[in-house]
Design goal:
single chain, alpha+beta, Glutaredoxin, Glutathione S-transferase Yfyf (Class Pi), Chain A, domain 2, 2 domains, four-stranded mixed β-sheet, 9 helices, 53% helix, globular, binds ligand GSN
């Protein structure tokens, strides 16, 4: 037995949240160690646990994995959420890369000097660049790639829920994505993750921001 999966990150969404979503969709149990102090981070560094001195860090199958996309791909491959062949996989990767780009724009908002000034640009990019692609792809099939659930579906749900938190009516002109959300939310593992008390994290607050600033000694 390789032991339980352990996530090392802050008690907040950040780059780890997509990993939590994917593990939940794959019905993989995991433990979490929350970074709250600079000393904890320095201990991870001195233990040699962080290849590039960065988190997310995920302990899985006897390995200490870093780099979010590599971790996501490992989990997706392992739990059969990465398509059936190379051509499925490249499509899945194109979708997930785009979704991560979009989610990163929202993720960094608490750390930018004038976040409100960035919102219009994010909303426009979402509506004009990203959402139309997913709306078109979902005009027939229930899933984005290969007729079955993949990491691309999981991240599309995560991303669109995140967008709706910022822009509540953003999906009003995207009925296929809205219907997709409904189907995804009814999957038992995902429904469970959306319930209060799950390991899903809330939007960033001041405590989360302050913890990150202190751990990384950002000014
Ligand atoms: O995706 C990844 O895991 C890496 N390409 C980036 C990871 C990263 O930037 N991690 C941050 C904290 S999480 N938020 O962005 C980090 O560890 N920063 C400390 C540092 O010295 O870079």
């Amino acid at each position: 037995m390789a032991g339980k999966v352990v996530l090392h990150y802050f008690n907040g969404r950040g780059r780890m949240e997509s990993i939590r979503w994917l593990l939940a969709a794959a019905e993989v149990e995991f433990d979490e160690v929350f970074l709250t102090t600079r000393e904890q981070y320095e201990k991870l560094l001195s233990d040699g646990a962080l290849m590039f001195q960065q988190v997310p860090l995920v302990e899985i199958d006897g390995m200490k994995l870093v780099q979010t996309k590599a971790i996501l791909n490992y989990i997706a491959e392992k739990y059969n959420l990465h398509g059936k062949d190379l051509k499925d996989r490249v499509m899945i990767n194109m979708y997930t890369e785009a979704l991560i780009d979009l989610m990163e724009m929202i993720m960094i908002l608490p750390f930018t000097p004038d976040p409100n000034s960035k919102l219009d640009n994010i909303q426009n990019k979402a509506k004009e660049r990203y959402l139309p692609v997913f709306e078109k792809t979902l005009s027939g099939p229930p899933h984005l790639v290969g007729g079955k659930l993949t990491i691309a579906d999981v991240l599309l749900l995560e991303c669109t829920l995140m967008l709706e938190e910022q822009f509540p009516t953003i999906l009003s002109k995207f009925p296929n994505i809205k219907a997709f959300q409904g189907r995804m939310k009814s999957i038992p593992a995902i429904s469970k993750f959306l319930q209060p008390g799950s390991k899903r994290k809330p939007p960033p607050d001041d405590v989360y921001k302050k913890t990150i600033m202190e751990v990384f000694q950002f000014k």
